[in-house]
TrEMBL record:
Belongs to the UDP-glucose/GDP-mannose dehydrogenase family. It catalyses: UDP-alpha-D-glucose + 2 NAD(+) + H2O = UDP-alpha-D-glucuronate + 2 NADH + 3 H(+). PANTHER family: UDP-GLUCOSE 6-DEHYDROGENASE TUAD (PTHR43750:SF3). This is UDP-glucose 6-dehydrogenase. Pfam families: UDPG_MGDP_dh (PF00984), UDPG_MGDP_dh_C (PF03720), UDPG_MGDP_dh_N (PF03721). Its EC number is 1.1.1.22. GO terms for molecular function: oxidoreductase activity. Pathway: Nucleotide-sugar biosynthesis; UDP-alpha-D-glucuronate biosynthesis; UDP-alpha-D-glucuronate from UDP-alpha-D-glucose: step 1/1. Residues 317-418 form the UDP-glucose/GDP-mannose dehydrogenase C-terminal domain. It comes from Hohaiivirga grylli. Keywords: NAD, Oxidoreductase.
Length: 436
């Protein structure tokens, strides 16, 4: 199959490289010339484990290429995937579909022969209808179908999620489009990945429902963590105790500083908007968004409390800034709110992140960025672990103690054991666990 992938970001680049690795011919198109230039030089513009090797291998073997020229890319294509960003629209929380519609417009002018246009971006219900309308109006002679194929990969585990998905959801309105999509995903049929063929609108909504449900699960356990702290219970044991029930499942029950990232925050907001528009308000998701928002600043307050009630004039070291480990993505990372609130309370911030510093510098200013975890701690009054990078799981605690002015460690990801930390002489504060 010949595939065009429009948008070479986290989703487009990973999907393009994986489709090429299945044996398809893939051209990735991006309208950011610097990105394409870098990719053509073999440089990968994002940090995603294993991606560099996968891209280089498929380029070398002639199945993957990059261009800014959409017209050339779609000449022979069987399917053109739209994998551009759908951020929150400023002011109202709706998904900003301008990038999707711009891509559809450009595609319309360049289609040759039967092509399936596939929305891989996360888009509100009805976007497929709108894309179809745009193409029909711009190019009445075009021979095409529009399908929805939402992506469920997680950053940091993107390649294995794409190649071994729990399921693939495909929303199609014609058998002809279904045939093309089946052929594209044939290698995964052989892996026995369940493929759900649904209507286009159902596929669009399924993506939002999945993200909102996962965000709800995290928010639920975060509230249980707060309760655990009050009643002297342990949230990790509660999570295990409920998660072993197959009806609940153990994943996405890690209490922490609130969910962040490029998807959950914007997708929950967009779902709320859609639900309101269709007069079927999603009150649960509305509560999830509100609780998660307030949690981030509550985590800054937790750090302040651990420092004796004030951080004025103090230096706080933050370990981990990205919204989760194994990515350089800072979009809606809880660290942003936490760092800014600590600064407002008079603290000086030092920070270290293994991969996210360049992106962090664009959103977090007046921060002393350290080159490694230990120099980050030097002279700080307290350290807070915000993101659970593996590099922070086995710190040399004796060294940590000698570097800090006072041995205060706030662990917002529960990667250390309270009893052990106490034994080592730390004032240790974690999430949803009493210190005994
Ligand atoms: P991204 O911002 O990393 O990448 C989008 C890319 O599209 C950019 O490189 C941009 O230059 C390019 N682009 C924008 N308009 C274009 C156009 N008209 N023509 C060509 N290129 C264009 O975004 P992302 O994180 O990959 O997300 C893409 C979509 O996938 C979003 O809808 C998102 O919600 C969804 N999604 C993301 C993830 C994730 O983990 N990041 C997971 C599942 C779904
Ligand atoms: C998410 C969805 O999981 C994925 O299916 C979708 O395609 C894109 O959005 P991603 O944002 O990459 O993926 O990361 P994910 O692992 O889901 O984590 C999202 C946020 O939730 C992170 O801030 C993470 O720290 C937080 N989280 C996750 C928790 O706080 N506790 C958990 O148990 C799980």
């Amino acid at each position: 199959m010949h595939i065009t992938m429009i948008g070479a970001g986290y989703v487009g680049l990973v999907s393009g490289a994986c489709f090429a690795d299945f044996g398809h011919d893939v051209i990735c198109v991006d309208n950011n010339p610097a990105k394409i230039e870098a990719l053509n030089k073999g440089e990968i513009p994002i940090y995603e484990p294993g991606l560099s090797e996968l891209v280089l291998k498929n380029v070398r073997e002639g199945r993957l290429s990059f261009t800014t020229n959409l017209g050339e890319a779609v000449q022979e294509t069987n399917a053109a995937f739209i994998a551009v960003g759908t951020p929150s629209r400023r002011g109202d929380g709706h998904a900003d579909l301008s990038y999707v519609y711009a891509a559809a417009n450009e595609l319309a002018q360049n289609l040759k022969g039967y092509t399936v246009i596939v929305d891989k971006s996360t888009v509100p219900v009805g976007t497929g209808d709108e894309v179809e309308k745009i193409i029909r109006e711009t190019n009445p002679d075009a021979d095409f179908d529009v399908a929805s194929n939402p992506e469920f990969l997680r950053e940091g585990a993107a390649i294995s999620d794409f190649k071994r998905p729990d399921r693939i959801v495909i929303g199609v309105e014609t058998e002809r489009a279904a045939d093309v999509m089946r052929e594209i995903y044939r290698p995964l049929y052989l892996n026995q990945a369940p493929i759900l063929m649904t209507s286009r609108r159902t596929a669009e909504l399924t993506k939002y429902a999945a993200n909102a449900f996962l965000a709800t699960k995290i928010t639920f356990i975060n509230e249980m963590a707060d309760l655990c702290e009050k009643v002297g219970a342990n949230v990790q044991d509660v999570a295990r105790g409920i998660g072993l029930d197959n009806r609940i499942g153990s994943k996405f029950l890690h209490a922490g500083p609130g969910y962040g990232g490029s998807c959950f925050p914007k997708d929950t907001l967009a779902l709320i908007k859609t639900a309101q528009e269709y007069e079927a308000p999603s009150r649960i998701v509305e509560a999830v968004v509100e609780v998660n928002e307030s949690r981030k600043s509550a985590m800054a307050d937790k750090i302040i409390a651990a420092c004796g009630g004030s951080v004025k004039g103090k230096t706080i070291a933050l370990l981990g800034l990205t919204f989760k480990p194994n990515t350089d993505d800072m979009r809606d990372a809880p660290s942003i709110v936490i760092a800014q609130r600590l600064q407002q309370a008079g603290a000086t911030i030092k920070a270290y992140d293994p991969e996210g510093v360049e992106q962090a510098k664009q959103v977090l200013t007046n921060i002393d960025y350290a080159p490694d975890p230990y120099s980050c701690l030097e002279g700080a009054d307290a350290v807070a672990i915000i993101t659970e990078w593996d590099a922070f799981r086995a710190l040399d605690l004796k060294r940590v103690k000698t570097l800090l002015k006072s041995p205060t460690l706030i662990d917002l990801r529960n990667i250390y054991r309270p009893d052990e930390m106490q034994r080592q002489g730390f004032h240790y504060v974690s999430v949803g666990r009493s210190n005994s």
